[in-house]
Amino acid sequence: MVSAVSTDVSSAQPAAASESLIEIRDVHYSVGGRSIFSGLNLSIPRGRITALMGPSGTGKTTLLRLVTGQIKPTRGEILFDGINVSTLKTRELYALRRRMGMLFQNGALLTDMSVFENVAFPLREHTDLPECLIRNIVLTKLQAVGLRGAAQLMPAELSGGMNRRVALARTMATDPEVLIYDEPFTGLDPISMGMIVRLVRHMNAALGITSIVVSHDVHELSGLSDTSYIIAGGKVAAAGKLNELKGHQSEIVNQFLNGLPDGPVPFHYPAADYQQQLLADSE
Amino acid sequence: MKIVRELADSAGDFTAAVGGVTLFLGRLLGQIPAALLRPSLIVAQVHNTGALSLVIIMTCALFVGAVLGLLGYDTLLRFGSEDALGTVGALGLVKELGPVVTALLYAGRAGTALASELGLMRATDQLTAIEMMAVDPMRRVVAPRFIGGVIAMPLLTVVFIAIGIFGVQLVGVQNFGVDSASFWSQMRASVELNDIAEGVIKGCVFGLACNLIAVYEGYNAIPTAEGVGRATTRTVVISAVLTLMLDYMITAVML
Ligand SMILES: Nc1ncnc2c1ncn2[C@@H]1O[C@H](COP(=O)(O)OP(=O)(O)O)[C@@H](O)[C@H]1O
Ligand SMILES: [Mg+2]
């Protein structure tokens, strides 16, 4: 099913030779008159784990929405395996999305279905597999994330970490080539976090899935990612192995990686002069 | 001057809203054939919305019918024609009270549930997640709910009318001693096919309107707790106003 889709859409270019799966070239994007990206360039290597980092509000989620074709850039192009994502028609875009899997921060499980039905959802929607085969696939995927025993629970009965693991199993059900994780570690206890880190690594190592991890957890990522991009000010501020970036000359990169409270990202939100405002208010 | 500008602004808002609903309806109608191929999803939604509203519809119908019995008997007695109570009750319920009150109750119970469910799915990224799984949420989530509601509402209207007539009968025949035979025979003799058609048309039109508003507001809710709350409120308010406006138009046309 997936292979039929890829020959269909990617006929424009024989893509197998290329090193990188996703290419972002000179992307500009603005929303509500505010510029989020101004000339963003980066490439996601095939079969590796790439980290996208940066301060909150810098546009990491927006970048993922651009890559998955939910929004279109005002300028520049986004190539997925040689296919320009932003020029696709809806049907072609849906075909392309079957090669991607995306994990949302809160899991985004369908709340009116059990864990089992959630994982079965993409299979039921896209295939005519017999029930027994669906059952086998679902149980295999749940076993891989350690939640086969939770198959009959409803999403509301799961903890935050379990929610994300079920979402991962659901994403894996259709065997995507790329997995995109949006802040997978946020709000998790250390044990759940360790489980997710292990799963991200496993999916990449055992199945060769290209992985994109958005996070600002410098510590977890330094052991996980092959390459990292730090995005700030609408551009890539630094790129490379995370350990080597620690001594980066750019101030913003330094502030981010070392967690300094003040720097290019100021401690104070822009405001009028403090003294003047106090005096003015007391009058 | 300020008033003129405000009027112009709200006229602009209104036009934009109507345009938005129309575009949404177009997308929705495009997905309906595909959604009809999966009747199990629709049946589940008919059950959901129907079961949700059934008890409240039945309770209210009984009381509306009983009040109609009291007032109808009191009025008809002044003309010495209490035997016509069956006719008055049935016509009132079939042509007006049944469809309208059902629509208002439906909007308050099932419409709000629909809007907040979709709004919450939007706010918790469920709709985006479905899109990311290469499934159109319009086809898989919105269309079955819309069709289910559109089927459920005329059925609920019929239930309301039946129970309402029972309520009229309870007060008129059991309580005031109107002759049972003439109550039913007068009703059967004077309620015409036209009257029933008016009730059916109203039930269907209100069903389309209320369910469209509910899924539109829910699907386009601002993805925050506040946004979902607003969508729910707007569903009730707009459904009620629209129902009564449409009611006037249909009544005028069918008179
Ligand atoms: N639909 C939108 N309307 C207005 N502003 C938006 C919208 N989406 C994102 N933004 C703004 O874009 C910026 C980047 O958002 P986001 O990509 O979510 O950041 P990150 O994921 O890096 O924290 C934020 O400052 C946010 O306020
Ligand atoms: Mg984000």
TrEMBL record, chain A:
<protein>
    <submittedName>
        <fullName>ABC transporter ATP-binding protein</fullName>
    </submittedName>
</protein>
<dbReference type="InterPro" id="IPR003593">
    <property type="entry name" value="AAA+_ATPase"/>
</dbReference>
<feature type="domain" description="ABC transporter">
    <location>
        <begin position="22"/>
        <end position="258"/>
    </location>
</feature>
<dbReference type="InterPro" id="IPR027417">
    <property type="entry name" value="P-loop_NTPase"/>
</dbReference>
<dbReference type="Pfam" id="PF00005">
    <property type="entry name" value="ABC_tran"/>
</dbReference>
<keyword id="KW-0547">Nucleotide-binding</keyword>
<keyword id="KW-0813">Transport</keyword>
<keyword id="KW-0067">ATP-binding</keyword>
<dbReference type="GO" id="GO:0016887">
    <property type="term" value="F:ATP hydrolysis activity"/>
</dbReference>
<dbReference type="InterPro" id="IPR003439">
    <property type="entry name" value="ABC_transporter-like_ATP-bd"/>
</dbReference>
<dbReference type="GO" id="GO:0005524">
    <property type="term" value="F:ATP binding"/>
</dbReference>
